[in-house]
Specification:
The complex is a heterodimer of chains A (about 650) and B (about 220).
Chain A: H1 3-24, H2 33-56, H3 62-84, H4 95-103, H5 111-119, H6 132-150, H7 172-203, H8 206-235, H9 238-266, H10 272-304, H11 309-338, H12 343-357, H13 366-374, E1 380-386, E2 392-395, E3 409-414, E4 417-423, H14 426-429, H15 432-505, H16 510-536, H17 545-554, E5 560-565, H18 571-592, E6 597-604, E7 607-614, H19 627-637, E8 641-646, E9 652-659
Parallel strand pairs in A: 5-6
Antiparallel strand pairs in A: 1-2, 1-4, 3-4, 6-7, 7-9, 8-9
Chain B: E1 2-6, H1 10-22, E2 26-31, H2 34-44, E3 48-52, H3 62-73, E4 79-83, H4 89-95, E5 100-104, H5 111-122, E6 126-128, H6 130-136, H7 151-162, H8 166-172, H9 177-191, H10 199-212
Parallel strand pairs in B: 1-2, 1-3, 3-4, 4-5, 5-6
Classes of the chains: A alpha+beta (about 650), B alpha/beta (about 220).
Chain lengths: ~650, ~220
Amino acid sequence: MRSGRAAVAAVAALGVAAFVVLCAADGTDRPPAWVLALIALAAAIPVVLGLVLAWRRPDLMVGALLAAFSTVPLAEFAVHAWGATETTAHPWPGAHVAAVVDVGGWMWFFLPPAVLAAVFPGGRVLSRRRRWLLLGWPVVLAAFGFGVALDPSTYREGGGTVPGRAPAWAPEAVGTAVGLLALAGFAALLVGSAAAILTRYRHGESRLRRQIRWLALSAFLLPLALLTTWFCYLLGARSAAQVVVVVGLLVAYFGMPVGTAVAVLRHDLYDIDRLLSRTVSYTVLTAALFVVFATVVFTAGLVLGRGSAPAVALATLCCAVIFARIRRRVQAMVDRRFDRAGGQAVAEVVGFVDAVRDGRAAPEQIESTLRAAVGDPDLRVAYPLPNSEGGMSWLDGAGDRVPAPAEPSREIRSGGRMLAVVGLGRRTAARPAMLAAVLREAHLPLELARSRIEVRSALAETEASRARLVRAGYEERRRLERDLHDGAQQRLVAVGLSLRLAQRQLAPGAAYATLGEAVAALQEAVAELRRISQGVRPSGLDDGLPAALRTLVRASPVPIDLRVTTDRVQDAVATTAYYVAAEAVANALKHAGSQRLLIEVSRHGGTLSVSVSDDGCGGASIVPGRGLGGLADRVSASGGTLHVLSQPGTGTTVKALLPCAS
Amino acid sequence: MRIVIGEDSALVREGMARLLADAGHEIVAKVGDAAAVVAAVQRWDPDLLITDIRMPPTMTDDGARAARTLRAQRPTLPIVLLSQHVETTQSLELVATGSFGYLLKDRVLDVEDFLDDLTRVAAGGSALDPEVVASLVVPTRATDPLASLTERELEVLSLLAQGRSNAAIARQLWTTRRTIETHVRHVFAKLGLLDSDSDSRRVVAVLVYLRNRGGR
């Protein structure tokens, strides 16, 4: 991926060669020396910019294209100068061909800006379909040159500048047709390139837009200038046409490198900020070391004699020691100066915000993003949330409790409310400007993350309290059942025993029979209590879920197959499972007219599955507030899920999946 | 008979003791928790133990556990468990071992039946509460052997399961002993059980049969 460097070197070498030709060619309209010097100076700027880019990003062709901004015009000037030697006493070989090529050479000037517009800033065309924006250029340039060569008006006899006349072997119409086709293709290339950068601008995210705005504007001048020129030609205003094309090209030639420079320097394209700071820091280092070296050599020279080898060695040693000591410090200092607001760090956070918006990242990842962006492994983000004890808890991005962040830290506020606190390492806290810029960009994901954590923790709290309510309900039922058995029932039996004893002391008679009736009524009351307490909490649950289900099965008027493959589960889970089975069985008997039922209970890892299937008429569904609906509430309060599978005619299956700790 | 009573409700305990004393039994100990039950039996070596299932300390099945412990130590000790609710698995298992009774607590109010049950258990027989039996003796499917019994035969089977002898059944159903013996033969044939001359062995056969249907 180093082809970018090779390309820019080749382009720069070509430029140097062209400049040499330009200086050496002794033609009729050779420019004066000061103009040549000016040209060299102007041409140097894009080449240097291209070299810097290629050095920084060897994988991109953009550097070579920037260098081409000076090389291509130089090449055209060189061809012109070569052709101009034809009319001198010593014409260069091929001067006639060069003169002909020079006539169509103006088209070359459009090549660098158009191609740059087509591939900026990534160095590639947008899609495979747009490859013709690159491949079209050699075809169009060759075709136009061919057309010009066949055109009689190119030659002096036809009113042109090139000595001689048009070749006789081809009819004039062919040249005209090829030339016109080439011009049409040329216009298409310019419009296509301008459209390419416009498309990139319209579909890019905000940062990319800022980067390519100026370049896109200058790119539009290309087709505009060309079309205006042709319009002027049609109106016969030949000189006006030439002015328009020159001005248009000049603006593009000035605007596009400047646009690229702006994107690079102001909007952090290609991370140039850091490049700049490295360059400066090494310059400072070099200067400092030079001073040290000179001082040591001079001082040691006074003692050991001028030009002595030990003095030089001592100076070198001093430099090496000092270099190792101060390099990092100088770098940090320069970084603070030049990496003004941590452009790179801000860019990383902005990229993260884009990723959050596109759903490629979760806002809770802001902590790791900030860590990477400011290079601070100690950085952490904590969100203050009111807890159920009425106080304040600090939560991290995963929603786990963490200790409050220690100083130094920054509070993130929104409308007077504290969203989050960012705890920092010491070195990060020492860069307030950078930090402020980074945290400004991080505000949105921080606020989003906080909202999400808040909602999640509220939901978890609700679920937990619902589960607690259900457990409390079960406990209450158990207590009630005990009270019925150990209290009321016992007393009734005791009263009955007293009555029986009284009865035995009486002789058979009216009172004897009355007491007998009273005891019978008491017995019925006890049986009634037993039924009620069975409804409050099935007694079999004390002996585990299977025992309770067997009792349920025995009480059923239709046969029920029971398949239980599980050992003991916690009481709350067993109770919920029992109610699922009992309610589903009651439903099947009441509504479905079932003749056969099947209860299956099994356990897979941490999940207890309870399912009740019948052969009834089907068509059951979960309606809030009624039978299965109440069951669904009970199950979900225990953290489980209830599924009802019921097709008319094929029976109903009610299945609950309940979490149970192993 | 010399009887030990384990019952945590003082009212019930005293009432029961007076009733049994009134019927001519000797109450050697009246205690209120499971540990005391074990201690009393070991101390007095009674003819019969009557104990509540739900007792201190845990108020779950402490009485039943005390009974199992004592059974292991004294295989011939007759035991009657009193329960607050119908429980089938555990009760069948215990009663099928013989010399064992499992009755709902309010059954003591049917004084004559209760005394009968006690006497029978003390003599090595069984007593299973009618309500428990009723929940067991229900045909569950067309292929269930119980479904092939006539109504009268089901009645006889239920009384057998309660631990009654043929004579007692005949009295209860106002018929002759011979008729009941015929019914019993039919029931045993239909259920595929081995008949026996001994009343208590018949009862055990029926209880084992009912227990083995367990899964349903």
